[in-house]
Amino acid sequence: MKVTYNLVDESWIPCMTQDGIFSKRSLRDVLLSAHEIREIHAELPPMTASLLMLLLAVLYRSLHPQTEEDWQVCLNQGFFDPQKINAYLDEWHHRFDLFDTEHPFYQDPLIGKRPKDIQNLKGNQVEPKSVNGLLLHSSNGDGATLFDHSTDEQNVSFTLDQMTRLLLMIQGFSLGGMALASISSDKFYKDSPHSRGVVFFLRGQTLFETLLLNLIAKDELPEKFTRTNKDKPAWEMEDALANERDIPQGITDFLTWQSRRICLLPAELENRLTIKELYSAPGLSISDSFENPFYNITYDISKSKREKHLLRFSESKALWRDSRAILESHDESKHPPAALHWINILKTFRNLDYQINMLAYGLCSEPGQKKAYFYREESFSYPLDYLHSQTLRDALTQYLTICQNVKSQLWGALSQMAGLILAPAMDQSEGRKADPKDIQNLINHWDTEATFWKMLENPFYHLVNTLPQNQVEALHTWQQTIRNAALAAFDQAITLSGNNVKALKAGSKARRQLLAGIKKVLIPDEKEDE
User: For the chain, is the Cβ count within 10 Å smaller at the N or the C terminus?
Assistant: First the structure.
């Protein structure tokens, strides 16, 4: 019996309609009804990002948006051209089948048969591996419990729709390092294109708008994506993995980059096809010099060798605290996401909302380590004014700096309180000093810094929306909010330290220090003076 699972026809993309109804739809249905869909939302944030990239690749090849005028035509139409979408999907229909004998979607049917593989195998057979070996297990376990399956590594299996979504994420977001491979001597994997930084998308009111806002006209794409006319997505290539290369030939080549050589091995379980095992080997690596257009990149140009720094998700720092970096203009040292440059061009169109709505996806990892600490999705909005106003961006930087300065004063006060609790006489000239490690451990126990930043997140988004209209009012409200957040976080530490005399005395003294420190770092407030 011939096994088939064609993504053009099967229902595998998780969608939410404008009415809040959840359903899975085929690739064709998603593109043709994108104007009726609110969003796609997969099991993990990197998986959702991978789905968006796949859809963008199809749109680039079917609609061919060359200029701003082409883009405007599509916007005015209000939906993607059914004739163009259907014609393209019909032409390449066979290349979207997971189990096509010659060109299985996003896979390499030649694992073990290529000259390099034959040399590495040394007469041995290519070995099937558990799908579990390619999963990114995060430290809090959300990778292991991602799907409804046994957590026994030998019994992990996936339905075909689950495996398709996972396949997309593996190609785009896998971390490099040593891993189980079907060819034992070829088991060092490189990072996938999107694995180490935050990827940004513009967000619309519908999936149609979201995709269109990120469908940058080819005339406005960075030069690296338009230097050749050989650009094709992986499924259009006769063999996307035939030549070792580390620079994409264009935008659709990049969007469908094959960083892993995979061949799925279907098996029947309880009268349905599942994937329990696969063949796996390293695929295409991507050059460190290549600039991912979905990333926010800063270069340190003060050193003899330019160092590239990616904006990353962090366990201890929410993304809004890097707002200035995200909104910064493109220059020699700063490369914000390409979509922000694109929306700045589109602001001339009357139909465009003058609010920047952004989505951010990714995982948290340490450079060089093959471990995902967590997966994250964030969304946030800014008035479009920030993209073309240096004054507003400078003000935003200043206000974020105030936050950091108040946080430093909070830490100093907590350090004093912890020290006095551990060594009540430490403020006396001959008194015993508390161990700095013990002080830090007690501060960590109180966890006040997390409370401080959490209390500021929603007020910050209020700040960015009011700042363009009235900077005096915005500064006044923001500084009051920061002060209140610092005091609330400090009071949390007092509560956790108990109500004994030693703790109350330490808290009282440290609170006076905090109030004085806050007053010292706040900017003189014109509104308060009035």
Answer: N
